[in-house]
Amino acid sequence: MWGTAISAFQTEMGGSKEAESPETDWFQWTHSPEIITAGLVTRDLPEKGVGFWDTYRDDMKRAADLGTNAIRLGVEWSRIFPRSTEPVQAEVIRNRGGDVVAVQVDDEDYTGLSALADWDAVDHYKEMLAYAKSLGLKVFLTLNHFTLPLWVHDPIGCHKDIESCARKGWADEKTVIEFGKYADFAARTLSENVDVWETINEPDVIAEAGYFLGSTQGFPPGLDDALQAFRVERNLVFAHNVAYSNLKKHAPAKQVGIGIAPSVFFPVDDDPRSRKAAEYATYVSSEWILNAIVFGAFDNDLDMVTDERAEGMAGTDFIGIDYYQRIRMRYSESSALAGVVNMEMLPCVDCTDFGWDIHPEGIRSVSKWIFEKYRLPIYILENGIADARDEKRARFIRDHLKALGDAINVDGIPIKGYFHWSLMDNFEWADGYSMRFGLYAVDFLTKAREKRKSAEVFEEVCKTGELDLG
């Protein structure tokens, strides 16, 4: 698969009133005067975005015109279920350890969910997916890309006091149960035009950016609490597990997987403590969650030793990789990443607008270690660059695809697809519209799209299968 990627919340709003989606935690988060004043987000508002909800036909044509044969999209949980699905009492199955490992939705439960669903939104998504298929694009659909319905998560209340907050989002296993219902409903209503499912986008980032490093990353609920982050990441593992089973139940022939965002932690000196710190940072940021998802192996004290084997784990059909950067670091007794890893992070050398360090070889190295450990097919679900002037993107694309080719042809890694992030400029979460990732530039006032020169490099590869190194 050669494709481009977008997410629902980052692109849908910005057109008609129907395009607005205010019932999410991220919408409330970005509108909160308290959160804006605290500097956790910009003053940019998602409803000023690119308007994909209304313009999806033109934008999908642009994707197809690049020569791609696939597109990665998302659906918004709060659009499909603007009201709580808790009244639908699906059967919850727990393992002997008490973990939720299945949420069984029978036909009566589905009828109850159907009564709560917004069928205008469901039908709109069905039209989107069908149109993508009509253009010859395979559909890679993500169920959850960061946002949660407000009836699931109160981001402001949890920011103030997570313990007393009534709607704790991923910090509460109730969200695992409701996600299982949502996945079952989505499988029954949308599978016809879906080729591959992704359950959750970057669960590692959800935990880290919202709960581990929230005060600097600006993700809701903006906490710096290692215990809460651990709780969230564990719940996300089980959320994937129940969603995987429900998706496979209704679409057994279709692949279902999950995507993470591994960075390359690169020691800048020869101190063995720096190497060990880099290995540990890789473990806590990427390996821990993959061990839990693939093997049901939990390391509950983060000492790199499995101390729990969870029953009832369904696994995953593939592992998605969202690769962006190298993190240059060294051991430091006076610095600690999130209070866990004794390391100092150093400035980028070859920098994106985000300040991320460009390191093309990383796409090969992370693919290699993930495949060698887990022996599962891999999709590159995101790879791109914030580059508003379009000065580095062409080289970025060439160099990363060269490294990806080496991973496939030299290392023998079964990489099944590559999705460039992003088709067009969009709402970049806490950074608003300042970071421009699009192959198509967007004027956010007029909503006009303009193909960037660098897009021609990607287009040539998609259409010919050949990489011109320039």
The helicity comes to 40-55%
Quickly count the helices.
16
CATH architecture: Alpha-Beta Barrel
Rough outline: globular
| Rg, Cα atoms, Å | 21 Å
Task: Give the domain tally.
Answer: 1
Q: According to CATH, what is the class? A: Alpha Beta
Query: How widely separated are the two ends?
Result: 23 Å
Number of strands: 17
CATH topology: TIM Barrel
Structural class: alpha/beta
Q: Please, what is the average pLDDT?
A: 97
Sheet with the most strands, sense and barrel status: 8 strands, parallel, barrel
Low-confidence stretches: none
* CATH H-level superfamily: Glycosidases
Can you give a write-up of this model?
The protein is of the alpha/beta class. The chain has one domain: Glycosidases (TIM Barrel), CATH 3.20.20.80. Helices cover 40% and strands 16% of the residues. It is built from 16 helices and 17 strands. The strands form 5 sheets. The chain has an 8-stranded parallel barrel, surrounded by 6 helices. Strands 8-12-13 form a 3-stranded mixed sheet. β3 (91-94) and β4 form a beta hairpin. α10 packs antiparallel against α12 and α14 runs parallel beside α15 (393-409). It is globular and about 60 Å long.
